[in-house]
Amino acid sequence: MQTLLRGGRVIDPGTGFDGIADVLMSDGVVSAVAAGLDAPPGCAVVDVTGLVVGPGFVDLHSHVHSIAGQRLQAMDGVTTALDLEAGLMPIGRAYAEAAADGRPLHYGFSASWGGARAQVLAGIQPDAQIGSGLAVLGNRAWQRSSTDRELAEWLALIEGELSAGALGIGVLLGYAPHSEPAEFLAVARLAAKAGVPTYTHVRELVEVDPGTPADGSEEIVIAAAETGAAMHHCHVNSTSGHHIDRVLGALDGSRRSGSRVTVEAYPYGAGSTAIGAAFLDAEHLRMKGLSPSSVVMLESGERIADEGRLRQLRNSDPGAPCILEFLDEGNPRELAMLHQALAFPDAIVASDAMPVIWPDGSNDSTEWPLPPGGTTHPRTAGTFTKTLRVMVRESGAWDWPEAFRRCAHLPARVLDEVAPGARAKGHLGVGADADIVVLDPVAITDCATYFGPTRPSVGVRHLFVGGVPVVSAGELQVDALPGQPLRGEPR
């Protein structure tokens, strides 16, 4: 199978190439990039004049494990969607079920720190499902510190997951905020020994919670320096909030000193999680300068009126998804903080995409367009296109080569050591995977909102996953399920 993309503006962040050229895809890889290529016999030719051609976006932080959610991400320019912050456990089951169902996009998972702790500390057997994982977040039994024996047990479980192909270790430290800091150092040492990254939702900052056992930003800096592990800081925008200057300064200093710390951000002032999360109790909200009315239930749209209602919801259904408004995008000062996180040198764009949930409780659909009633955070459908609109089209903070570097090349490089297959992603060199997005630089934009119908982005004209068209002429191809697993090398 061969396809020739003719006459587009081709951007390869791997080599720095930016010019008018043709791209030939053959049997799932890029076989030629040059001006005036001849189309081989039987080759499909797609005229992409006036469009921008680049490597498909690699999302390091997606909790979407369904055809429906991945289709929304495809319309957002994503070709590889990985759940690395939380991970799934057991990893073998997660990969097997994704392969059995089929996926439009490439997929992969980290070893779940939370799942391993839940199994050892609370006797909860992980089932490789995002829904049950959200429900566990509100269970306090796994959030405590471990005994020496328990620590050894769950570290051994993580080692087993790495041997089974996990893409590093996902650490939801912010959901067990008072666990012993020495345990996080033990995870970092394991990661360094195994040669895999960690992906951490850090615990609270000291400005927010003076009683925290360790400051969230300093803890990851210290662990990276002491162990030499490659450590990825998830969604720095949402965990830093109004203290983004101080956090980015600490991370910049860490990198300048030689530590291997990477950073990601998304372009929204509200996040999404389970209502039972530790940092959504009334006391923690007050510490953040927020209130129960900063929390909105995703499925019903209910804005929580007071602390009594918050306690009721947290107790009755701790896994219920909600939205937390942490920055006001209508406030120019707070919007500037959000953009500051994206503009931070080498910050990676990552979505933190959430499942699409319908009123009957299901979280998947093979229908397209999506049936009515589905709800999710807009970042599921619009993170990358909104970032391109804001950072390239509107502000000019990035040019197109820089945008592809942040959305495709840099995230793929985070995975180079743990997954050799990642080395063929995030660039358009000959031999690269034919994971390619073709976008309209004028029309590209997000359409999703916090409430109302879940609407896909527009402006992605073509999307190829392993050379197979998943989006053609702006239309999703409903029969296309070419996604393949990205696995770590056994450790």
TrEMBL record:
<dbReference type="Pfam" id="PF07969">
    <property type="entry name" value="Amidohydro_3"/>
</dbReference>
<feature type="domain" description="Amidohydrolase 3">
    <location>
        <begin position="45"/>
        <end position="244"/>
    </location>
</feature>
<dbReference type="InterPro" id="IPR050378">
    <property type="entry name" value="Metallo-dep_Hydrolases_sf"/>
</dbReference>
<dbReference type="InterPro" id="IPR011059">
    <property type="entry name" value="Metal-dep_hydrolase_composite"/>
</dbReference>
<dbReference type="InterPro" id="IPR032466">
    <property type="entry name" value="Metal_Hydrolase"/>
</dbReference>
<protein>
    <submittedName>
        <fullName>D-glutamate deacylase</fullName>
    </submittedName>
</protein>
<dbReference type="InterPro" id="IPR023100">
    <property type="entry name" value="D-aminoacylase_insert_dom_sf"/>
</dbReference>
<dbReference type="InterPro" id="IPR013108">
    <property type="entry name" value="Amidohydro_3"/>
</dbReference>
<dbReference type="GO" id="GO:0016811">
    <property type="term" value="F:hydrolase activity, acting on carbon-nitrogen (but not peptide) bonds, in linear amides"/>
</dbReference>
